[in-house]
């Protein structure tokens, strides 16, 4: 049975469709069981939007993932996108035109639970912890005692981000994440959630780490190279670092790989003062160019950025293209997104709110693309091209990625979690070059000359 994902952005159209959406809302269980990591959740994910606001109404159907050497039929996707002047009447008409299909479908829509523009209250620590994949890294009593501190607020955010994304992926895949909680003897620990050989995802990893201790000389050099002037006492720099990171490698080459990471650093200098900064970003690595997917992904990120500063998206999009660049190949890793690091202005509260907005886009910017391409068939040649592109992904992560370098230079780091980002399979062909005019060549052209998608 196919599933329709319905999204209406015009307020009038949204009102006309409300009766249909109410049924989907009632079908969701608004309660999260305590640390329910071992079964796919049917919960309604609070605070998420499945499509960015705009002037289009889309109806997307999906079935099961498939593979056929006969060709690239696109049976599972129906997308109706309108121009900026699309009216509410046209939106409703489009919906009614698909009424028969709608009646045969299950609703997969996630419903926004909070009013637009209203910040969610952070609420009780214990109650929020009930929705995590497992108990947080830091003892709950400690989190309650220092509830107002930024390190607590950030840990709660990354735990919630991990849980929301894992449950969304479990729902589409039908598999479950292995939840692996680990401790670091030097201080702190982490939670690695990994799903391998699923129906949709070959490898999906969503990791949280909360570590503390003293920066080594080598790790401190990594900071210095980023322009940080750090003054430790007797060569010691107390620090805490935390973040959530994820890399998703789908089986179907028409579903892109996605990566995101949001993190917070805090370092205490010899005079007792603290330096802090945030970093992170979300980026997409498709195997084939799809302009509609690229627009949706970038526009969702742009809207999150625009809530905080009109220049953020433009600046962080350019930063992303520069950072995820495989220099020895002369190409970007994918079609980008946003990336920022060492962000410590205009103020801690303002930056945290921005990071929170970005973290809450990871489900709505990616899952609609997954659902859209679930039933796309693919050939052996397309699968081989996916393997070649994964090889480039591996090259960037092992040669250039700053997070991997920092992790490998930090004592007690968990190597399995650091290398979680690598796919199960990849391919390196000697002197590989796609045929001119092919879709593979089109992809390379985009990677060699980054585009503006929004």
UniProtKB/TrEMBL annotation:
It catalyses: coproporphyrinogen III + O2 + 2 H(+) = protoporphyrinogen IX + 2 CO2 + 2 H2O. The keyword Oxidoreductase applies. Its EC number is 1.3.3.3. GO terms for cellular component: cytoplasm. One of its GO terms (molecular function) is coproporphyrinogen oxidase activity. InterPro entries: Coprogen_oxidase_aer (IPR001260), Coprogen_oxidase_aer_sf (IPR036406), Coprogen_oxidase_CS (IPR018375). SUPFAM superfamilies: Coproporphyrinogen III oxidase. Keywords: Heme biosynthesis, Membrane, Oxidoreductase, Porphyrin biosynthesis, Transmembrane, Transmembrane helix. It is an enzyme of class 1 (oxidoreductase). The chain crosses the membrane at residues 77-97. GO terms for biological process: protoporphyrinogen IX biosynthetic process. Pfam families: Coprogen_oxidas. The keyword Transmembrane applies. It comes from the Eukaryota. Pathway: Porphyrin-containing compound metabolism; protoporphyrin-IX biosynthesis; protoporphyrinogen-IX from coproporphyrinogen-III (O2 route): step 1/1. Belongs to the aerobic coproporphyrinogen-III oxidase family. Homodimer. This is Oxygen-dependent coproporphyrinogen-III oxidase, mitochondrial. It comes from Mola mola.
């Amino acid at each position: 049975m196919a599933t329709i994902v319905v999204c209406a952005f015009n307020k009038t159209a949204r009102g006309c469709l409300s009766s249909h959406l109410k049924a989907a809302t009632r079908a969701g269980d608004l309660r999260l069981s305590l640390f329910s990591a071992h079964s796919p959740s049917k919960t309604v994910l609070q605070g998420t939007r499945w499509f960015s606001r705009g002037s289009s109404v889309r109806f997307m159907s999906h079935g099961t993932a498939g593979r056929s050497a006969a060709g690239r039929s696109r049976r599972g996707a129906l997308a109706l996108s309108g121009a900026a002047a699309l009216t509410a009447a046209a939106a409703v008409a489009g919906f009614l035109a698909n009424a028969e299909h709608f009646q045969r479908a299950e609703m997969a829509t996630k419903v926004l639970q909070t009013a637009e523009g209203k910040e969610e209250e952070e609420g009780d620590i214990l109650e929020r912890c009930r929705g995590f994949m497992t108990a947080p890294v830091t003892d709950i009593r400690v989190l309650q005692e220092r509830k107002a501190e930024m390190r607590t607020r950030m840990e709660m955010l990354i735990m919630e981000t991990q849980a929301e994304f894992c449950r969304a992926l479990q729902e589409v895949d039908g598999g479950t994440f292995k939840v692996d909680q680990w401790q670091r003897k030097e201080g702190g620990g982490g939670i690695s959630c990994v799903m391998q050989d699923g129906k949709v995802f070959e490898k999906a990893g969503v990791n949280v780490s909360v570590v503390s201790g003293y920066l080594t000389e080598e790790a401190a050099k990594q900071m210095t190279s980023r322009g940080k002037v750090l003054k430790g006492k007797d060569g010691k720099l107390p620090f805490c670092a935390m973040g959530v990171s994820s890399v998703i490698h789908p089986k179907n080459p028409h579903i892109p790989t996605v990566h995101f990471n949001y993190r917070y650093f805090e370092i205490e200098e010899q005079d007792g003062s603290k330096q802090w900064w945030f970093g992170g970003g979300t980026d997409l690595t498709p195997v084939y160019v799809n302009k509609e997917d690229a627009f949706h992904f970038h526009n969702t990120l742009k809207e999150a950025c625009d809530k905080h500063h009109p220049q953020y998206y433009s600046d962080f999009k350019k930063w992303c293209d520069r950072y995820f660049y495989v220099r020895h190949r002369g190409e970007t890793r994918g079609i980008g997104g946003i990336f920022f690091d060492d962000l410590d202005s205009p103020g801690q509260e303002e930056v945290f709110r921005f990071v929170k907005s970005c973290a809450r886009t990871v489900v709505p910017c990616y899952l609609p693309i997954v659902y859209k391409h679930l039933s796309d068939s693919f050939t052996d040649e397309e699968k081989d091209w996916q393997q070649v592109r994964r090889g480039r992904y591996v090259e960037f992560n092992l040669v250039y990625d700053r997070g991997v370098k920092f992790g490998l230079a930090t004592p007690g780091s968990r190597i399995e979690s650091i290398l979680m980002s690598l796919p199960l399979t990849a391919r390196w062909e000697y002197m590989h070059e796609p045929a001119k005019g092919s879709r593979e060549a089109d992809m390379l052209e985009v990677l060699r000359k980054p585009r503006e998608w929004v």
